[in-house]
Amino acid sequence: MTNMKQATVDTGNAATMRGILQKIAIARLRCREFARLRKSDEAQQALARARELYAELLSTADLENPVHRSIVRNRRVDLGTMVAEVESCRLKCEVDKVRRARRKAGA
């Protein structure tokens, strides 16, 4: 007995998701790099772009598909990591400002 059902593959949706995932990866790298360089504003912009892309991914993904659900879940974890990196960068920048102000006042 053979399977006579024809499988349909929506390559347009796959290509769209692949493009979104690549853009999210680029935004994640930019965010991490800006956070490492303590460029808080640029890191926040990269995070905002990643959030937009995540929303686009949610609208594109078929959440009935377990593979798509896994992809969305992993990108949500990445987004959480990016938020933590940006917050850490912001706090480090504020600490640097306070230290500079103290040195300036003490000098």
Secondary-structure content class? mainly alpha
What proportion of the residues is helical, as a percent range? over 70%
Coarse morphology = elongated
Mean pLDDT: 89
**Strand fraction band?**
under 5%
Rg value:
20 Å
**Count of DSSP-assigned helices:** 3
Number of strands: 0
> What distance lies between the first and last C-alpha atoms, to the nearest angstrom?
88 Å
Largest sheet descriptor? none
User: Regions with pLDDT < 50 over 5+ consecutive residues?
Assistant: none
Order of helices and strands: HHH
Question: Can you describe what's shown?
Answer:
- With 107 residues, the chain is mainly alpha-helical.
- It contains 3 helices and no strands.
- Helix 1 runs antiparallel to helix 2 and helix 1 packs parallel to helix 3.
- The longest helix is centred in the C-terminal third of the chain and has 41 residues.
- It is elongated.
- The model has no long low-confidence stretch (mean pLDDT 89).
